[in-house]
Each structure stands twice: as C-alpha cells, then as structure tokens.
C-alpha cells in the first residue's frame, strides 16, 4: 500500500510521535510511506531511512494567504506525482489544506486533541465544521474528543483510536547533565516533560514545588527552550533534550499540569517506564489514569500535593502503582494496538 502521512510542523510533539510510529512500522511491514511536513524539525531525524521525506517550505502554523495557497498547490502536485492509496492528515492546518487538496474518500484525519481548536483557537471551528464531510474517517484520540466533536456537530465517520508508543529501550545509554543516580540517593524525583507554553501550567508546577519544599523531593522540568529562574530551590530546569522520554528512568513520579490535552504521549511513555502519573483532568487523561496507576485531578496545587504524598510516601503502595502503570501500557497503549486499528481504516479507504 502507498501511504501519504502529512503534518504541519516537524518539531517533536504528540502528533509527530504518532506519525513517526505509524510511518516506521508501516515501512517495516513493506508498505511505501511518504511523509509531508515543513522543511526543518527534529521529527525528520526519527523517521526510518526507508520513509520518503517531502519537505514543503510554505507549510507553517500561522495563517498566510500567499503561503497557504502555495502549500495547497504543492499538495496537489504531490498527490499527482505519488498517487497514494491512503492519505493520513495530522494537525489542524494540514487537516484543512489536505482536505481541500486531496480526494475525500482517501483521507483519514486525526484530531490530536480537539480542545486545541475549541478552547485555544475557536475562530477555526468554522473551518472544521465546513470540512467535516471531506474525509473518509475522522479519528479522535480519546472518547472525550469524540464527545466534544459531536457537540460541535462533527459526528459522522468519527472513530476513537488511542495513541500507542513503541516499548521503552531500557538499555539505551544516556549522558545526563545531572547526576541523577547520586541525586536519587537523597531525593525522590518528580518529573514533567513539556514545552513552556500557555497550554502547560508551569505556574501550577512551581506552586506545587513551593508547597513541598520541606519534603525530600526534586521537581525536574524538561522541555524549556528559554532560561527560567525557578521560584523554588527544589526545581531543576534541564532545557530541551532530544531523547527526553528516556530520562523517565530517573523519575519516581511523572506529573503533567495542563489546560487542555488530547491523549498525552508523555503520560503513556511514563506508564511504559512503570512510573505513576498525576495529571490535570483534561482531554482524555481520565481515560488513562484510574486511581491505581495515577490520578487525574482538577488544577489545584493542594490536590496535587496530597496525591504526590499518597503515591510516594508508602513504599508498598508505590510499587503497586508502578506495576499497575506498566499493566495499563501493555493492555491499551502499545504501538501494535494503535497501528492495527489505523491500518483497518487504511484498508477501508483503499477499497
């Protein structure tokens, strides 16, 4: 099968992780895979050499009538040259341009968190509603997203497929700038991996850390591009790290304070590493965390503090949380489960 995957930005995030995993597994299964995105970004380096990479310089997140029209023409040309059997679109911008440029009966469009439109960019809701029928299938990454899509009148041909990830590489060699092994002799590590953006509640992260200054804890944030002066001496900011998820081996607990989410890859990665998770109860988070592998909470620092203590301060209870975390990953969020679910849609679009 000839598969065209397309995403607006080539930096690393949840949507890019899904695209990378689907693309790399499909080429290993003998399919022809093409990936279309912007020119620069770390995503390109993580794609298999067997994946054919097509970079469109006009693709960008911001609205630009001139560049958007050029990108639309580029997509039309790519379709004529490749003649793919199925087209899989990720993210809103390419989701709109692709639904205009490609035949609708071949299009699978994954909505990686509909609140990124509904709450963060409501002016684009009209575009989603106008183009809702220009697809074979719309994929929601959580039941939560499926419900809110329906509330906006987007309910035909919508299915839910949970994100999945490749299993961890426990033997991978790392060269951390922090001596975590020594640090963990005296402290437990509460880690968050996220970029600094309005979506992520760094202010809540800092408030939680401030309230727990008397505990033997270090709060580690990975993903900040800019330097940040921490509010508390128990916060460590490590900046951007290309293999950030592999640092979860050093964590005792993962937290994700956030204003909105789809189905966070970082939470699934933490579960794969046997790490309990405490996160904001947004998007599909409550569909992952069940009180036995972690907690989905309202954005209140005292609630986070209470559950962090609950998970970490009893060793027997903590070990059970860790075992449950891994069981959740293996039961629901492996790459094979995600890939097989998507491939059934690809085969449907190819007939």
UniProtKB/TrEMBL annotation:
UniProt domain Glycosyltransferase subfamily 4-like N-terminal: residue ranges: 13-165
InterPro entries reported in the protein's UniProt record: Glyco_trans_1, Glyco_trans_4-like_N
GO molecular function annotation: glycosyltransferase activity
Highest taxon of source: Bacteria
Residue ranges constituting the Glycosyl transferase family domain according to the UniProt record: 182-327
PANTHER family assigned to the protein according to its UniProt record, in alphabetical order: GLYCOSYLTRANSFERASE
Official protein name in the record: Glycosyltransferase involved in cell wall biosynthesis
Top-level taxonomy: Bacteria, Pseudomonadati, Bacteroidota, Flavobacteriia, Flavobacteriales
